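Predicting holo structure, iron/sulfur cluster bound.
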Amino acid sequence: MRNELVQKYFAEIRQLKKDKGAVILSHYYMPPELQILEKDGGVANFIGDSLGLSVEASRVEAANIIFCGVSFMAETAKILNPQKHVLIPDKEAGCSLASSITSTDVQQLKLRYPGVPVIAYVNTFAETKAECDICCTSRNAVAIANSFETDTIIFVPDVFMGQNLQAKIESETGKKIILWHGYCEVHEQFSNISLSTMKQMYPDAEMLLHWEVPRETVDESMQSRKGVLGSTNDILKYVGNSTSKRFILASECDLGASLRGMYPDREFITPCIKCPYMKKINLANTMAALQSIGSDAEALYEILLPPEILAKAYLPIKRMLDFV
Ligand code: SF4
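Done. Tokens:
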């Protein structure tokens, strides 16, 4: 998009936010133009990972939240703010991971493993969360898994993140993890082949791997190479503490935009795999969602959940926020 057009959208969106009493919460996987804070000339009030956005959603004072992320995230914002209007610029912004499990699947797991606590990755829909004991993000999954006294836990739905968690938890505590077989279609694509080639091309680069990357890729990538396996927040912090000038990023491509903005003197190399769901959100539909507030068109964007799901899903999210 041409810069004049981007600036025109920025100015109109900022004015609409004022007129409508709205804030914009934006995820690190959004297109770069939605990852610029209003104070820096953009439109976002807050940019964050899943946990950061959940925390921010619980603090928002404005009556209207425009959630620039995918729908399970906007649902979390609604669950934490049931009295507010939460709008997502495109309701079709789904998630392969969240779609891999339903509330019925969790009910069946609980019947099969009675008394075993169920931890749901926050990348699940509200109905699924409502059946689980606690939610977690990649940032607090280890602390939450370790907080249960049982020798077994169920972790849903991300099998790759679950395997990475398993490797850490089992070696530290001997606890067993029962896994579900969902996966993120973005992080699943980080294969040994693409990263090994990059490692050969950039022998001085450190590795930045998200928890959702397949286990075998993690094992191979971290061999004889410095780096981090962790959450988005862990990756951002790791770069801040490292003296390296070059990094290979194995996470959603547009996280690279935030990293380049925060650390302009460093180089970030990535196979650039984009999440098709996150990319459904753009400046045009963000503006349309804002314009709809107070009109019949708001129904096209507003997140609405049944009262019983709002109440039931609140508890596992609230328990997760106690680990922040
Ligand atoms: S990056 Fe993966 S987990 Fe995140 S929204 Fe896209 S498909 Fe879902």
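The longest strand covers residues 22-27.
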